[in-house]
Amino acid sequence: MAWTRYQLFLAGLMLLTGSINTLSAKWADNFNAGGCGGTAEHSFQHPFLQAVGMFLGEFSCLAAFYLLVCRDRQRAEPSLAPAQPFNPLLFLPPALCDMTGTSIMYVALNMTSASSFQMLRGAVIIFTGLLSVAFLGRKLVPSQWLGILVTMAGLVVVGLADMLGSRDATHKLSEVITGDLLIIMAQVIVAIQMVLEEKFIYKHDVHPLRAVGTEGFFGFVILSLLLIPMYYIPASSFSSSPRRVLEDTLDAFCQIGRQPLIALALVGNISSIAFFNFAGISVTKEISATTRMVLDSLRTVVIWAVSLAVGWETFHGLEILGFLILLAGAGLYNGLHQPLLARLPWRRPPVGAVGSEAERENLLGGERAPINAES
Fold first, then answer.
1. Backbone dihedral region for residue 132 (phi beyond 0: left; psi -120 to 50: alpha; all else: beta)
2. CB neighbours of 57 closer than 8 A, spacing ≥ 6?
3. Which range is the signal sequence, renumbered to this chain (predicted)?
4. In sequence order, what are the residues at sequence separation of 6 or more whose Cβ sits closer than 8 angstroms to the Cβ of residue 194?
5. Rounded mean pLDDT of the chain?
6. Three-class SS string for 46-80?
7. Considering the entire predicted model, what is its pTM?
8. For the chain, where are the E strands, in sequence order?
9. Which of 86, 127, 254, 370 could form a disulfide with 191 if both were Cys (CB 3.0 to 4.6 A apart)?
């Protein structure tokens, strides 16, 4: 079935803003600028401040939700269902997971390439599947277990590409390995977030934009407050700021003042996460969850291509192999092989029988993406 112009717009918006989100964060990391008090130029490595910006972008989804509600109420026949009462504190545990996982991933992005960062996030499939079996009582079909095993193999190949390949000159091998491990560790926390959302939030039928905005509110407020003690916590070599603390927010703003392009990168990161969440939710609603998963995979290709074009990283053939294996693992886990198998002559159901579309929808519906799937 041919897509409408609106569907094409949504798909393009999701692909564009999702790519900008990672690329803008990496662009900010690559800048060098002087800090406060005339300190020498040093790299802009402020992962926790960047995470605050991301939550600000998610928080803005609340404004988009209320604008949508106001517009809907002006119609003769409102299309939005009346909001069900719910306790906003239900979003606090997932928001804490989101805050922790996002902060770890921004730290890791300082240590590894943007393409590896995006590929290794596919590890969330492994931990989500295992946790859903343990805590949600879900039974995975054989193809999903196979998808988990294939994903594990893909992670090994991408990790080997990072160790054997020639990374950019600013990253030591030890930093790259640490960054890759931190990304995988963060996916455990993201998987816990997804299980919490599945168990306690989805049953309340909260509008996705409202859910994203509420989690963004909690993450923005809590992490903003945590920036205060982080300003005094020593971090030695872990920090690149002159004071060697966990997060030197004042140094970040001084660097932004001396290099305005950093501000442009941060604005791109904040705005892109808001539009990406809106586009992702709309793609799932207007097209399918399958399309959303495919577009998210294409985002990795865009990020990799741009990183190669601007010289942030060098080409390594193992990354192609690793990406293809990860793509196959995600496809198996999400049931994308079912429509392909259904096309085979010996797998076609007889006329009048229930087709494979329902089975496909069941498989796709078996796992939900995190509410803020783009953080």
1. alpha
2. 216, 269, 270, 271, 272, 273, 274
3. 1-24
4. 124, 128, 131, 368, 369, 370
5. 83
6. CHHHHHHHHHHHHHHHHHHHHHHHHHHHCCCCCCC
7. 0.83
8. 32-33, 42-43
9. 127
